[in-house]
TrEMBL record:
InterPro entries: TGT, TGT-like_sf, tRNA_ribo_trans-like. GO terms for cellular component: cytosol. This is tRNA-guanosine(34) queuine transglycosylase. It is an enzyme of class 2 (transferase).
Amino acid sequence: MTPEPLPTCQADMKYDILARAGFARRGNLHLPHSIVETPVFMPVGTQGTMKGVVPEQLVAMDCRILLCNTYHLGHRPGHERVKAAGGLHKMMNWDRSILTDSGGFQMVSLSKLMTVDENGVNFESPHTGEMMALPPEKSIEIQQALGADIMMQLDHVIHVLTTGDIVKEAMHRSIRWLDRCKVAHTRDDQAMFPILQGGLNLELRKECAEEMAKRAKVGIAIGGLSGGEEKDHFWRVVAACCAALPPHLPRYVMGVGFPVDLVICSLLGADMFDCVYPTRTARFGTAMVRRGGLMQLNQKRYKEDFLPIDDKCECNTCKNYSRAYLHSIVGKETVGCHLVSVHNIKHQLDLMRDVRQAIQSNSVEQFLKQFLHDYYGPIQSEEPSKQDSLEVREVPQWVRDAVNHMGYKLDF
């Protein structure tokens, strides 16, 4: 079969829904550098590099899209230098899709170093102390120079637990800034996603969704979450936003990376996710696993454990290295972080592959039950004397509520 040609301009970028199961969708997002299968997890290469992992390894995992950070790349090495190098794809040796964020998240992460008004954001560099003005137009200018397949609008981001009039003000400002971004957006080979705001207020979220959807051409994002809010609020906002958005747009929930969150949000109707979690947790010697969620490889119990992290995982780490070896080097040798990062990224990509397959085969309820049983079930020690002392974790109530909202039943 001849592969479908990739789009060359925004008019050709499209989202095809291939299967549905309840609220969930499986689809293909056609972008200039790859066809991205959704639901999809996007690893984060903040400075144009995945920490401890080279692009060739991501290709071997069939990673189709990753995220890079506009604010940080704008500082180092600078978007002019990236443009002179032929764009971010060429500079970092990555021929698949890239999404760049707008710099808006730094309003929260660097809140002590910034001010915001109607014109835009003013940052003080955490590296040099240099002031940087970032109006919506500048954000688009930087992202166009970087050359990502998907750019994000600059939105007014506030901490998710903020209350009062500022929540509505930030939401309406985000809409106004989107209109300014659209005027500044001149490259036809890059898509631009609006970003929904509105805090935890479902009515503001719906109002914002209605306005943003009118302006969205290729896809749309749900912003302002994963900042410490109660999970019961988190899933309800995602569900409300997905329900309010038109089906032809892929829905990108920003900053989501915990496996349970990925599964629940996918089944609520979201399509795209990103987070630094897989590589950040690897730096602490923690491997992600289906059974029990996390494996702390620095624990003494793994000192003489010669099994792989996961005998079902096909990543290079699990094929070639034991838990005992990783235990001996994590936190001591940089290769330890590298090997665990490779596994963790592959774990996330495989999880999303399994979600897609469950949607395609209309077996979501069976997949969900097995996933939750494994994730929250007891981890059986290889030492029989310790098996009875292991704690059995309960499936959180917010997960049960979300599953009930989907129309599925858990029998445990």
